[in-house]
Amino acid sequence: MRVRYKNAIVVIYMIGQIRLFYQLLGNTLLAHTTNNFVWFALTFWAIVETRSVLVASFIAGIFAVTNMIGALYFGHFVDHHHKRTAMLLSSVISLGAFAGGGVLYFLTPSGSFSDASSVYLWVLTIILMIGTVAGNLRTIALSTTVTLLFTEGHDRANGLVGTMQGVSFALTSILSGLVIGFLGMGSALVIAIIATTLCLFHLLTITWQEAAPIAESDTSHPDLRATIGVILAIPGLMALVFFNTFNNFLGGVFMALMDAYGLALVSVETWGALWGTMSVAMIMSGILVTRYGTGKNPLRAIMLVNLISWTTCIIFPLQPSIILLALGMFTWMFFFPIAEAAEQTVIQTIVPQEQQGRVFGFAQSVESAASPVTAFLIGPLAQFFFIPLMTTGAGSTIIGDWFGTGPDRGIALVFICAGIIGLAVTIIACYSRAYHALSKHITSA
User: Fold this and answer.
1) What local confidence, expressed as pLDDT, does residue 6 receive?
2) What is the third-level CATH fold of 25-204+223-444?
């Protein structure tokens, strides 16, 4: 009888934890959608206003730099404060930035944003990027909350997070394209302010039990030495961080040029709708991870996903086809949540819960550090080398007959080069000592 009573208590407790987790997921869905909506809307609007590939590249670079700097502090903050406090602060920063951006936009004279060298354009971009990047504080807090709420099945909980991100991405892509296409940037900012306000007030109604945060003599700045020590104590974990960093280095190519490539093929409304439609792949993937997990060794899943993704990046740009591009987008977006869930599961499995915030923050910061380098370099490289090469240069003469010519084919050639490099590095990583050491550690854990 006593055993049944204890089992009943455990069941009731788990139901409560799951219900709380769903409330957090719903709140994060609104916040995540709003933050990404602002990022996408800003990028689409800036490209349409200025007609410059460099603008898209620099916006991506500013986002990556801001995220790189913020992630270390975000992870440190999460470890030394309650997770709910971190999530509330995230919403407050986003709301302040979107409101400030709205004031600047509506008070600036018409036509001031149409020049790529406009100071107003870049001040607005920095303000809005701060609000968008502040959402990563919530993301790190949510990852550590998964460990807090569930003692096992982290990969499946991460699958639910991936499903949420897929739904968010679908909504973001469709809404940003339609709002910029039909209403404009001003309406996008008003929508973001209203949505973030609702998100903040809803989060105030959600509470949960948490242990006291880590107490240290100085909690104002991240302790990089201690964080690196935690990572180095686990064989192969630092190698995984640098592997993902290199992937992000190449991924910066797509971050900087994908919108310019897509908008060269279709209108902004169609491009936004295509992103939204293809986002169904993320939802499907998240559901599969929730149901089946990432396997006994999530590190193996990471490598397999990279092999497939980089191969796809070589194939889809071979011809200027929106169908090939859509298939490439679908494949990449299907496997992305699996890689994300697998990486989070690795950290949640082998890193102590009270230290996970700093590890997530360090990994996010280092991995993000590569993207701005690529984003800032690849825009000018594409604009002044690859695009002329495939428009009137030697490339158009040598492979133009079957590959095609023009600015979009120059961007496509950049994608193919990145895919070849990414595939080669992944194959090398699969045979490395670090991979086998970390795999062994994960299996034993």
Assistant:
1) 45
2) Growth Hormone; Chain: A; (1.20.1250)
